[in-house]
Amino acid sequence: MFSELNILLEQLTGLCPDIRSAIEENRLVAMESGSRSPCLDLRRIDAKLANQSQDVDLVVLEGMGRCIHTNYNAQFTCDSLKLAVIKNRWLANRCGGDMYSVVCQYSKGTKTT
């Protein structure tokens, strides 16, 4: 998945000057979680990711396991975007939606300026 994200970001640099400059200036960085599981236990992320995440403006979590199963109610000091497609009928029913419903949850960070 991480290699696919890097390919996508490379393609986007040719389409969007803002994304290109953000990547060139290290303001947009894709990083691996260090987890092989589809779920993401934020207490056990890779140390490099934890260190790099100290002063970020936005965290994006993608995938049903990372966003819904383990981090749906997680709060961050920075803004967060959680993106997933529900691919489990039980979970779709529990959330009041249909199979293949899209979840897009944007939350403001708790950090005060």
UniProtKB/TrEMBL annotation:
Boundaries of every Damage-control phosphatase ARMT1-like metal-binding domain copy: 4-100
Keywords, sorted A to Z: Nickel
InterPro entries on file: ARMT-1-like_metal-bd_sf, ARMT1-like_metal-bd
Keyword Heme assigned: no
UniProt cofactor(s): Ni(2+)
Keyword RNA-binding included in the entry's annotation: no
Protein name: 4'-phosphopantetheine phosphatase-like
Source species of the chain: Actinia tenebrosa
Upper taxonomic lineage: Eukaryota, Metazoa, Cnidaria, Anthozoa, Hexacorallia
